[in-house]
């Protein structure tokens, strides 16, 4: 052992000369106060939502009855066929709602990104519009549009266009604010206008992020269009709602299984494309 | 070009001042670059070289001083009256700043955006054919014509910097300012890029000022060397007469501090 120490010469450096290591800082009062607040918030939330594992255990019989009626699922050809057709309508609502919100989202994102906005007023105005569109849930938009164009998938598409413009515009604006500003400066020096800089420096740099976010929103929108169906905006959500109202729980389970297939397929597709483009 | 301001240097900087929160970066800097001349700007980190170039092209707003292009004063950035005058100056950056996903050719064409109407420039597909041909000529001038179709991000650092210089040529700039154009390049690529700048000054009559960190490159290629210490030009000599002592004086570690204490 002594041989190893002397021959390798890799023992600890003599510590006398170097300054002592700094002391670890104790937990500050602010950190402790934040911890107490977080715990208190959870206690209040527990009470506010009447959270009770006991109630769940006592009510297990209700669930069992429900499942007994729901299983096995109704796999008759008629149910499957109407379900599949409605699932395609749901997919179509998500697709159109996403695609048709691209132009409005792009314009608002360009105005609402600090890297491309023409001035402070446009920036604030665009931010406000995006915030409003994001703050109103798509279900509320759907209810409003149902009163205008009646029950059916068209109201769902309109609802998605409005809500998705708010969300995607915000995400795109943020993507544009995160880019390296070098190419923008280079083109500014050459005398390019704001629109030209956006078209030739900012947008080409964010194409992969934009496509990635678009696919992510398509994925989310297909799932929200299910919920839109519950409030009467067509698609398979509408069928799920109907079968619950008619106590046809077996039919409902079949529809839910179709929903699962649809959601997984869309998710896989968008993940695959996002991997390919490296976003 | 020769008609107006005959006799005036292509670029003249007079009394340029800039400070950041009390710290003086440029202290009444004067700098002339004549057409056909390649000036190397040397100086330690933080002596104000990059800030000076960024002030000249309008990426920074100087606190005082004037910039004259062919004897005509350039107004503040965003001043519509000076837009045409500003377009005569191009800048080349250390980080190159090409759009990596676009082809080398599209990047070079982008240098011409300042003189294109929006209907010919909203996307690269709308660039007129004459512009594409001019951009190819610019790429050919820097020896990159054979890589025109490749995305800029796939080229090596030296190749990218040459494409960036082609972009400056496509801007039809008469003055090129290069901010540490070769600091991120290996020695061979660095020599290639600097000698290209020297050639452009000699053959095309461009006024070129390049911030360099390698005095040897400056001595080999530049016509004149300007040395900055604490935001002032303290050395201004033909490259052939630059002495080792001149260079050493620019890089004395605490020169700035001793200067300040003495004054």
Automatic annotation (TrEMBL), chain A:
NCBIfam families: PhnE. It is a multi-pass membrane protein. Gene3D superfamilies: MetI-like (1.10.3720.10). It comes from Nonomuraea pusilla. It is found in: Cell membrane. Keywords: Cell membrane, Membrane, Transmembrane, Transmembrane helix, Transport. Pfam families: BPD_transp_1. Its main location: membrane. One of its GO terms (molecular function) is ABC-type phosphonate transporter activity. Residues 1-18 have a biased composition (Low complexity). One of its GO terms (cellular component) is plasma membrane. It comes from the Bacteria. Residues 87-270 form the ABC transmembrane type-1 domain. Belongs to the binding-protein-dependent transport system permease family. This is Phosphonate transport system permease protein. Residues 1-24 are annotated as: Disordered. InterPro entries: MetI-like, MetI-like_sf, PhnE/PtxC. The chain crosses the membrane at residues 27-46, 86-113, 139-162, 220-240, 246-266.
From TrEMBL, chain B:
Pfam families: ABC_tran. Gene3D superfamilies: P-loop containing nucleotide triphosphate hydrolases. The keyword Transport applies. Residues 11-255 form the ABC transporter domain. Keywords: ATP-binding, Cell membrane, Membrane, Nucleotide-binding, Translocase, Transport. Transmembrane segments: none annotated. GO terms for molecular function: ATP binding; ATP hydrolysis activity. This is Phosphonate transport system ATP-binding protein.
């Amino acid at each position: 052992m002594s041989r190893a120490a002397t021959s390798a010469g890799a023992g600890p450096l003599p510590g006398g000369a170097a300054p002592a290591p700094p002391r670890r800082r104790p937990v500050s009062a602010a950190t402790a106060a934040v911890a107490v607040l977080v715990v208190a918030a959870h206690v209040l939330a527990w009470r506010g939502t009447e959270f009770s594992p006991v109630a769940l255990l006592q009510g297990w019989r209700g669930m069992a009855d429900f499942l007994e009626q729901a299983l096995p699922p109704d796999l008759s050809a008629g149910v499957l066929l109407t379900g599949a057709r409605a699932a395609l309508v749901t997919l179509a609502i998500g697709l159109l709602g996403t695609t048709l919100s691209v132009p409005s989202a792009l314009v608002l994102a360009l105005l609402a990104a600090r890297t491309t906005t023409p001035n402070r007023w446009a920036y604030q105005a665009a931010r406000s519009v995006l915030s409003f569109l994001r703050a109103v849930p798509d279900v509320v938009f759907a209810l409003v549009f149902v009163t205008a164009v009646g029950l059916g998938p068209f109201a769902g598409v309109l609802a998605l266009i409005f809500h998705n413009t708010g969300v995607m515009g915000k995400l795109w604006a943020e993507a544009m604010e995160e880019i390296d500003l070098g190419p923008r400066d280079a083109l500014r020096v050459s005398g390019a206008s704001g629109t030209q800089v956006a078209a030739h420096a900012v947008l080409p740099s964010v194409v992969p992020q934009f496509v990635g976010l678009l696919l992510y929103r398509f994925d989310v929108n297909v799932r929200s269009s299910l919920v839109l169906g519950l409030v009467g905006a067509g698609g398979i959500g509408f069928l799920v709602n109907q079968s619950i109202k008619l106590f046809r729980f077996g039919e409902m389970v079949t529809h839910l299984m179709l929903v699962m297939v649809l959601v997984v397929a869309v998710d896989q597709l968008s993940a695959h494309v996002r991997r390919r483009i490296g976003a | 070009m020769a008609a107006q301001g005959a006799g005036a240097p292509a670029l003249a900087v007079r009394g340029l001042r800039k400070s950041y929160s009390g710290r003086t970066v440029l202290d009444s800097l004067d700098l002339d670059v004549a057409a056909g001349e390649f000036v190397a700007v040397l100086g330690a980190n933080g002596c104000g070289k990059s800030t000076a170039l960024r002030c000249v092209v309008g990426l920074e707003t100087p606190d005082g001083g004037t910039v004259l292009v062919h004897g005509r004063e350039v107004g503040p950035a965003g001043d519509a009256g000076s837009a045409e005058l500003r377009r005569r100056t191009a800048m080349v950056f250390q980080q190159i700043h090409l759009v990596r996903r676009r082809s080398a050719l599209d990047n070079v064409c982008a240098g011409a955006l300042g003189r294109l109407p929006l209907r010919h420039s909203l996307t690269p597909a709308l660039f007129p054919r004459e512009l594409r041909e001019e951009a190819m000529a610019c790429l050919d001038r820097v020896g990159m014509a054979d890589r025109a179709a490749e995305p800029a991000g796939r080229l090596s650092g030296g190749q990218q910097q040459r494409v960036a210089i082609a972009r400056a040529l496509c801007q039809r700039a008469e003055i090129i300012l290069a901010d540490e154009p070769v600091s991120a390049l290996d020695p061979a690529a660095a020599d290639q890029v600097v000698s290209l700048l020297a050639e452009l000054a000699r053959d095309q009559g461009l006024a070129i000022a390049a911030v360099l960190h390698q005095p040897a490159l400056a001595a080999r290629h530049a016509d004149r060397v300007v040395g900055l210490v604490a935001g002032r030009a303290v050395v201004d000599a033909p490259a052939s007469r630059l002495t080792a002592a001149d260079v050493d004086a620019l890089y004395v570690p605490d020169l700035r501090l001793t200067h300040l204490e003495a004054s």
